[in-house]
Design a protein that fits this description.
The chain is an alpha+beta fold. The protein contains ten helices and nine strands. The chain folds into two domains: 84 residues, 60s Ribosomal Protein L30, Chain: A (2-Layer Sandwich), CATH 3.30.1330.10; 186 residues, Phosphoribosyl-aminoimidazole Synthetase, Chain A, domain 2 (Alpha-Beta Complex). The strands form two sheets. A six-stranded mixed sheet has the order 5-7-4-8-6-9, sandwiched between helices. β1, α2 and β2 form a beta-alpha-beta unit.
Length: 280
């Protein structure tokens, strides 16, 4: 990402998602910035654009940037330490999933492979534009919708990929899950870049989550299978919602701008196993 203003917005959404995944309201943020070595004027302009992007997103969620730390280094890096408040009775954890609940994902996956392809000049412009649009979408409203429809567990999908974060929820809840590969939303171009053999540098370590798949030989040739391990930047929320509320919850998400949101599976009683179906 060579646009610091855009980078600041995406990184801020990424960091705030941890707060939203718990059902919390952000209260303040501290920035940690590494600016590439350069002329003083260039360094100042990069910092200005980066923080302008961050503050734009923070203002949208009524959260002040109260300070931070800057340093110089080999490449641009940015992160936020975010604080939030929540009613303990509304707290969403990874550990609340219950059998027969439905799993809802709010955003399409594929940012890891798409931006790896972009670095190799093998991604189409519209693929990257669509991915950026997804990464700029805040998870704030989705969090409120999940609370409204009785979600029992939630997490944000980031560096461990969809399956890695789902396994965290599954283990914490002592349940199993069935995933419907066909229902998992995928960003345009992601399957194409996977077929080119282009993956994120984090993909190999994310493959460890495949140890929890009980029927791996049945599904590992499916075009979407590698994307289960694709690390996401500013990915969506994944929540477990009572089955009787799931369809209405999905409709509300889609009406609220989460056009790619989808019911991707269900929770089952068989503990700590993932069963993947091509169609549930």
């Amino acid at each position: 990402m060579d646009d610091p203003f855009l980078f600041g917005q995406i990184a801020t959404n990424h960091c705030l998602s941890d707060v939203f995944a718990m059902g919390a309201t952000p209260q303040s943020a501290l920035a940690v910035v590494t600016i590439p070595y350069s002329l003083e004027e260039k360094t100042e302009e990069t910092l200005y654009q980066l923080l302008s992007g961050a503050i734009k997103v923070l203002k949208e969620v009524e959260t002040p940037l109260v300070g931070g730390h800057t340093t110089e280094g080999a490449e641009l890096a940015f992160g936020l330490s975010c604080n939030g408040l929540i009613n303990p009775e509304q707290l969403l954890r990874k550990s609340g999933m219950k059998a027969e609940e439905k799993l809802i994902l709010t955003k399409a996956i594929g940012t890891g492979t798409l931006f790896a392809a972009d670095m190799k000049y093998r991604a189409k412009g519209r693929w990257i534009d669509n991915a950026v649009e997804s990464m700029l979408l805040s998870n704030q409203i989705a969090s409120k919708i999940f609370l409204e429809y009785g979600a029992t567990a939630c997490t944000d999908i980031t560096g461990f990929g969809l399956l890695g974060h789902l396994v965290e929820m599954m283990k914490a809840s002592c349940v199993g899950v069935e995933l419907d590969l066909e229902s998992i939303p995928v960003l345009e171009g992601a399957i194409a870049t996977i077929k080119m053999g282009i993956t994120s540098s984090l993909q190999p370590q994310n493959l460890q989550a495949s140890n929890y798949i009980s029927n791996i030989s049945d599904v590992n040739s499916h075009p979407k299978y590698p994307l289960l391990f694709d690390p996401q930047t500013s990915g969506g929320l994944l929540a477990s919602v009572p089955s009787e509320n799931a369809n209405d919850c999905l409709i509300e998400l889609q009406k609220s701008g989460y056009k790619d949101s989808s019911i991707i599976g269900r929770v089952v009683r068989e503990s700590q196993k993932v069963i993947i179906r091509e169609c549930l």
